[in-house]
Amino acid sequence: MSFSRVYGAQTYLLKGKVVSVEVDIMKNTLHSFTIVGLPDKAVEESKDRMSSALKNSGFVSPKNQNQKIVISLSPADLKKEGPYFDLAMALAYLLSAEEINFDPEGRIFLGELSLNGELRPIKGALPLTQEAKKLGYKEIFLPFDNASEAALVDGITVYGAKNLREVLDHIYIPKKDKKGNAIEPEKPKINKFPKTEISHQEKTGSIDFSDIKGQEGAKRGLK
Fold first, then answer.
1. Which of 61, 100, 132, 192 fits 137 for a cystine, CB–CB 3.0-4.6 Å?
2. Within a 13 Å sphere around the CA of 146, how many CA atoms are in the beta-carbon half?
3. Which domains does the chain have, with CATH numbers?
């Protein structure tokens, strides 16, 4: 496989927008690494964070190989902003390079990668999760610090991960023999994050309009 597609998302105004992260690799050529699809500076820098995170998670850095890597973020007419796509780009690269095998369909991957592979929190987890559910995605993977916010949404399974390795172990499909039996040990899975319950507290106001003499027009307007 030299082409793969994984799904990420970013905030757009007050809502979320799902973005397809496509990777194509051409091997045995001069090295180049390109991100297309109106990326801003933070997205452009993702290739450096991603490369170091992969290296420190036990893989060969994409920058140390003679290959042409093209990452396309679509829709192409939507400006891509922020570090939302680090995790999705890393997984799409590994899938395209045949370093791992997993099924990306029905899954959204979000998160900024640190250089050692840890997942850093992002902004807008709630609207991003709402959009993913609206479009029929079944699972969403994002930094553990964002999981509580994302779990406010019903109808989609939320997985909070602390690093890239946790996500890889969870989604990895073990190799099988000709009889269909797994020939690799099962890897640890991430627990589904429980539904976040909202606690309601009644608050008694300390000021009553009856304490204000006159000003009937102003009080009526406030009411």
1. 132
2. 26
3. 3-222 (3.30.230.10)
